[in-house]
Amino acid sequence: MEAADLIAGLDDQQRLAAETLLGPVCLLAGAGTGKTRAITHRIAYGVATGVYAPGRVMALTFTSRSAAELRGRLRPLGAGSVAARTFHSAALSQLRYFWPQTMGGTMPQLLDSKAKLVAHAAETLRLRLDTASLRDLSGEIEWRKVSRLTMEEYAAALPTRSLPQSVSPDAAVALHQAYEDVKDERRQLDFEDVLLATAGMLELEPRVAQQVHEQYRFFVVDEYQDVSPLQQDLLDLWLGDRNDLCVVGDASQTIYSFAGASAEYLLGFGSRYDDATVLRLEQNYRSSRPIVETANQLMRGRPGALHLHPVADEPGPRPRVADFVSDSAEARAVAESIADEIRQGAAPESVAVLYRVNIQAAALERALADVGVSTRVHGSSRFFDLREVKQALMMLKGAAVSIVNEPLFKTVSDVLRSLGWTQEPPEQRGAVRDRWESLNALMGLAEQAGEGTTLRQFVDELFARQAGQHEPTMSAVTLATLHSAKGLEWPSVYIVGLSEGTLPISYATTAEGIDEERRLLYVGITRARSRLRLSWSHQGQGRGQTDRRPSRFVEELRIRTPDAVGSSSS
Asked: What SS3 class is residue 215?
């Protein structure tokens, strides 16, 4: 692709970002403003003009899915050889390479999960912890390490932290130390150790730092509002004394402060680099005008908030707030509304229901099943981990060796039929239908493959998707927590449970905690393209449930945009 073609379709601010290839650059990019398009075209433009050598560019992000998306977008732009990785995968690659040279021998084994080791450490201290407590304490260990706190500094910070009721501050510190001791005895590393050890090598081994600096010169960091102090320190070490760094982020989408993320690095970028170019992407290409206006109202006056400008001319329906007698009534009403959308021609995969905590999914699943609507809980079981998908991949891989000169569609359909796929979906719901949906998603990928795609190429693409957890779209309504919905979008979005104690969550008692809950709702609102419905219920399930109050955020939207919302009890 010609260099001029790479920037021809960008708006003025995106084009300016793409053409500003050297020095420190900060893109303050609001939701739906095409930030991924801007940075991938920027990288590709730098390669096409000869400013960047592809092998010297490192694009960094925070999830495997996001890294896979970057790679997928760079490939057709002629920049497929640019490294696009998570912080962890980039650090792990360097650690494995340099460990024998600097430490000798093989690198310690990586922990798959902290929970088992935390449980063992708790046993040594005679602490009895349930599964939820083990998960929360594992998160505390991660937070301490990415925040680069010593045990003494962590102990001093404990008054601001939320611990399980059965664990005292002294016991928490002792558990952290016991975890580290057991891990060292077993010669194991956790994910945070990978970053810490890589940073340590770069700090203490000039030869290692020199090799890394010779390899990578130009850095791009997506979702920069999610960077932790440890990741920032590692990024500084990768940069050395250079400043060819482009960061992209939105302070209004900082929703992982509990895990150590800090928007201060994004908002302070212009102060840190005197010669920084700071650009704002505020043209929203995703959502209708009423949805954008609602998002702007929610974040008005908040630190670092961008003011989005809708590009879409069509007004679209105004977001509504509905209230219901109970959680079950709310779930039934949402399910009936979704079923009505589908009857009118909407695809199930074009609809999502978002909520604050996982437990809210159960009532929604039941209500949607009652009206005959298939659902998929985002983040529950990964698509490529499903048994039927693994079977299909292995059979397709075998077919790629033995079958030649046969149309891709025929080969794939034959393999999937042998596993139970049919052209028409089964009438029954449950596991049989779920299995069919999974196989049908693979069939859909085969139908979307470009003309002339060979079976081997198709199989290679499937395994690349598996490695990057780039899952295909399934014909089902998505159920997702607000946290897991970040980075996704749907034409129609329902956000449920907007009551005090749920959103904002009950343990968000500080101003900072409430602000994070506000940003979480903002993320949910900006997932919607054309239709947005908000709701809450007066009572939960079971005895002793007291009347709830609507979320303070709902109250704000009612006061500020009274014509944009409505209420209906049911």
From this structure: helix
504: preceding bond cis by omega (within 30 degrees): yes
Both tokens of 242, joined, read 């250079």
Burial environment of residue 286 by CB neighbours within 10 A (0 to 12, 13 to 18, 19 or more) = buried
Residues sharing a CB contact under 8 Å with residue 323, sequence separation 6 or more, in sequence order:
535, 536, 537, 538, 550, 567, 568, 569
Dihedral sign of CA atoms 503, 505, 511, 515 in order: negative
Residue 57 β-bridge partners = 218
Q: Which residue has the tokens 């102990």?
A: 155
CB–CB of 212/91 below 8 Å? no
Question: Tens digits of per-residue pLDDT, 337-374?
Answer: 999 999 999 999 999 999 998 878 888 988 998 898 88
How far, in Å, CA of 213 to CA of 243, rounded? 12
The pLDDT assigned to 268 comes to 93
pLDDT digits (tens, 9 = 90+) for 402-411: 777 788 888 8
Give the contacts of 338 (CB within 8 A, at least 6 positions apart).
Answer: 351, 353, 368, 371, 373, 477, 492, 494
C-alpha 478, offset from chain centre: 15
Taking Cα atoms as reference points, which of 190, 270, 189 lies closest to residue 224?
Answer: 270
Q: Quick one: which of 16, 48, 43 has its CA closest to 29?
A: 16
Q: Are 371 and 360 in contact (CB under 8 A)?
A: no
Give the angle subtended at the CA of 377 by the CAs of 376 and 380, to the nearest 5°. Answer: 125
Residues 6+ apart with CB under 8 A from 196: 145, 230
Q: For residue 122, which of 192, 181, 187, 165 has the smallest C-alpha distance?
A: 181
Q: Which of 208, 257, 261 lies closest to 231 in space, CA to CA?
A: 261
Q: Are 414 and 395 in contact (CB under 8 A)?
A: no
What backbone phi and psi angles, to 5 degrees, belong to 562?
-60, -25
pLDDT in tens, 198-227: 999 999 999 999 999 999 999 999 999 999
Q: What whole-number distance in Å separates Cα of residue 441 and Cα of residue 563?
A: 41
To the nearest 10 degrees (0 to 180), the angle between helices 64-74 and 35-48 is 50
Which stretches does DSSP call E strand in 196-308? 218-221, 245-249, 277-281, 283-284
Q: How far is it, in rounded angstroms, from Cα 210 to Cα 106? A: 22
Residues 6+ apart with CB under 8 A from 344: none
